[in-house]
Amino acid sequence: MAHTAAHGAHDHEHDHEQEHESLKTFGFWIFLITDVILFGSLFATYIVLHQNTNGGPTPEELFKMPGIIAETFILLTSSFTSGLAVLGMHKGNLKQLIGWLIVTVILGALFVGLELSEFITMVNHEGATISTSAFLSAFFTLVGTHGLHVSVGLLWMIGLIFQLKRRGITTVTKRKVEIISLYWHFLDVVWIFVFTVVYLMGVM
């Protein structure tokens, strides 16, 4: 009788934990929707302002496509490795999960480094600052906001790696891995739009 009661209490606690985790996942989806609205507004602003160069550098003069293609390849590869991390988690393979998350962090850091290098080159060698023209204000705001999101994702992922090393694969860490992977895929989708709308259309 006591064993049955204890088992029932355990099931109730497990159900409550699952419900709590589902609620947190739902909260993340709401956050993602607000992020879609944010990026949608930034893209709309860029499209309206991208021809207003104020006599300053134009997209054709500024954008160096080989470097931008490299950034794109690196970020898309990091999306693939984050997917491999989730696959490792579903297999219950903690070592594989952490290993692929570390690879994802390295690729993400490389992407941010290349993007910062691009910005520094624009400012120092081309004289293209955020205040040079409406086009550059919109460009730096849109691309910089995406870069900031990637940087936040990197810090989040690093923190999660340490948590996984301490606690292993649990209901909580599973939810966190799934959420960071979803966030990372979202940033990849946004970057595809950035690559197309900002860079490809800019040089065509």
Automatic annotation (TrEMBL):
Cited SUPFAM superfamilies: Cytochrome c oxidase subunit III-like (SSF81452)
Annotated TM spans: 26-48, 68-90, 97-114, 134-162, 182-202
InterPro entries: Cyt_c/ubiquinol_Oxase_su3 (IPR024791), Cyt_c_oxidase-like_su3 (IPR000298), Cyt_c_oxidase_su3-like_sf (IPR035973), Cyt_c_oxidase_su3_a-hlx (IPR013833), Cyt_c_ubiqinol_oxidase_su3 (IPR014206), Ubiquinol_oxase_su3_dom (IPR033946)
Keywords: Cell membrane, Electron transport, Membrane, Oxidoreductase, Transmembrane, Transmembrane helix, Transport
Membrane topology: Multi-pass membrane protein
Domain Heme-copper oxidase subunit III family profile: 1-203
Primary subcellular site in the record, as a coarse category: membrane
Keyword Cell membrane: yes
Localization per record: Cell membrane
UniProt feature coiled coil, ranges: none
Matching PROSITE patterns: COX3
One Pfam family here: COX3
The UniProt record lists the keyword Nucleotide-binding: no
Signal sequence range: none
Family per record: Belongs to the cytochrome c oxidase subunit 3 family.
Subunit description: Heterooctamer of two A chains, two B chains, two C chains and two D chains.
Job of this protein: Cytochrome bo(3) ubiquinol terminal oxidase is the component of the aerobic respiratory chain of E.coli that predominates when cells are grown at high aeration. Has proton pump activity across the membrane in addition to electron transfer, pumping 2 protons/electron.
Protein name: Cytochrome bo(3) ubiquinol oxidase subunit 3
Species assigned in the record: Paenibacillus plantarum
